Amino acid sequence: MLQKINSKQIYTGNYGWHTGHFHFSFGDYADPGNTHFGDLIAFNDFFLSPESGFDTHPHQEIEIISYCVEGEMVHKDSMGNKNIITHGGMQYTCAGSGITHSEYNYSLEKDLRFVQIWIRPALSNLSPNYASTQIVRSDRLNKLLQIVSGHRIENVTRINQDANIFVSEIEPGARLQLNQHSDRQFYLSCLEGALSVNDTSLEHGDAIKIWDEGTVILDAVHNCHLLMVDVPRIAIR
Q: Is the pTM of this model over 0.85?
């Protein structure tokens, strides 16, 4: 089954200094029929203006994954971490029992775009943790690169849930094929460009829910940049 979500169907909040495209209920967007996709409970595509950002704020009992699409994101947190994430970079925060953090765009002229994903953890009251990685384009070019897993995999960030996250940049004419087990579901977002998913067309900003497909074929129409989350069909809790 494929359920396409056109970019015009995704809630957009314009707050002056930043814009958020909220794929699921978040902040001032409340939709009881669109609160999660399994243990995926937030998929927010943020655009921050130059010299702006989210001031220090708290989180707890959530797994937070941020992927930088454009610009530079400056991260600081109560664990003492200070980091800059650039295009293609990813950071992970286990909020666990509680943390505070901030995200800023200190550029004087360039916008910052990043996707922030929230996943419900399998356990509560975990010790907070932070990790980051910078990914070069060749690592994700015309291949599906795994950046997050709930299992121990070399060079893949491990989180506290049975979930996987993949990124890819696909050139026109290239095709990727993957298998989907009946107990899994995929949420795929076309961040840039255009592609088809089992002959369903996606353009910039569109997303698609995928389950019971068996084989999933991704064909780039234009240079395509995508992010995909894989979670169990039934939420663990």
A: yes
The residue ranges of every structural domain in the chain are: 2-232
Residue 88, φ and ψ in degrees, nearest 5: 85, -5
What's the angle, vertex CA 125, arms to CA 124 and CA 126, rounded to 5? 95
Indicate the CATH number of 2-232 among 2.70.40.10, 2.60.120.10, 3.40.50.300, 3.60.21.10: 2.60.120.10
pLDDT digits (tens, 9 = 90+) for 128-161: 999 999 999 999 999 999 999 999 999 999 999 9
d(CA 139, CA 86): 15
- 91-128 pLDDT, tens digit per residue, is 999 999 999 999 999 999 999 999 999 999 999 999 99
Contact 11, 30 (CB under 8 A): no
- Residues 80-98 as b/e (b if ≥16 CB within 10 A, e otherwise) read ebeeebebbbbbbbbbbee
Give the number of other Cβ atoms within 10 Å of residue 181's Cβ.
Answer: 11
**Is 90 exceeded by the pLDDT of residue 168?**
yes
Burial class (CB in 10 A: 0-12, 13-18, 19+), 137: exposed
- CA–CA gap between residue 62 and residue 154 (Å, rounded): 23
Q: Are 120 and 160 in contact (CB under 8 A)?
A: no
List Cβ neighbours of 144 (8 Å cut-off, separation of 6 or more): 166, 167, 168, 176, 178, 218, 228
The side-by-side arrangement of strands in the sheet containing 18-22 is 11-14, 18-22, 40-48, 112-119, 63-70, 90-94, 129-133
